[in-house]
Write a structure and sequence with these properties.
The protein has two helices and nine strands, in the order E-H-H-E-E-E-E-E-E-E-E. It has helices at 35-41, 52-67, and strands at 24-27, 80-89, 93-96, 103-108, 116-118, 126-128, 135-139, 144-146, 155-163. Strand 5 (116-118) and strand 6 (126-128) form a beta hairpin.
Length: 167
């Protein structure tokens, strides 16, 4: 899990212009219950999660880990999850972003091949290998793609997008 970073040392974020390229972190060893994979796979509509157990996990485990990311270039103290979906596939996903959301996390629930590629059209794209318990946090405007899983292992990821409360 991420170590706590004192709030007083964090730059403010809501309403402050932040470079999206600075908003990219990988956090290892996010704990999750074994049943989370089953809950995610049993969702009738994987584009909108309605299982209260998954939502409770997001609010009680993922959100505190997101807020605790050290040296993040925006104040995450008021951020809240607002959109959830499950990615279950071995296939590639074309480049996309998560606008209008300010932040997105991808929590891998299984090990597989087929990297998440951050900024795939840049000179130096960054590849993140899917490993159970690894959480990737990116700005909502960050373009990313997913490579085809070369080992044909099902890639299971819980994707959560966040927003700041509206005034």
């Amino acid at each position: 899990m991420s170590d706590k970073h004192p709030q007083s040392e964090r730059p403010t974020g809501a309403g402050v212009e932040v470079n999206p390229h600075d908003c990219f972190t990988v956090t290892e060893y996010i704990p999750f219950p074994d049943d989370l994979i089953t809950w995610c796979m049993c969702q009738e509509d994987r584009t909108g999660i309605n299982d209260p157990r998954i939502r409770e996990y997001v609010w009680n485990v993922l959100l505190p880990n997101v807020k605790a990311i050290p040296n993040f270039p925006m104040d995450l103290s008021e951020i809240r999850p607002c959109a959830y979906h499950v990615n279950l596939t071995t296939l590639a996903v074309t480049p996309h972003d998560h606008l209008p959301f300010v932040l997105t996390t991808v929590l891998y629930l299984t090990d597989s091949e087929g990297c998440l590629v951050v900024e795939p059209h840049s000179e130096k794209p960054y590849r993140v290998h899917p490993r159970a318990g690894r959480m990737v946090t990116i700005h909502g405007s960050t373009v990313h793609a997913v490579e085809h899983s070369t080992d044909n292992q099902l890639r299971v990821a819980l994707v959560v997008s966040y927003e700041f409360p509206r005034p």
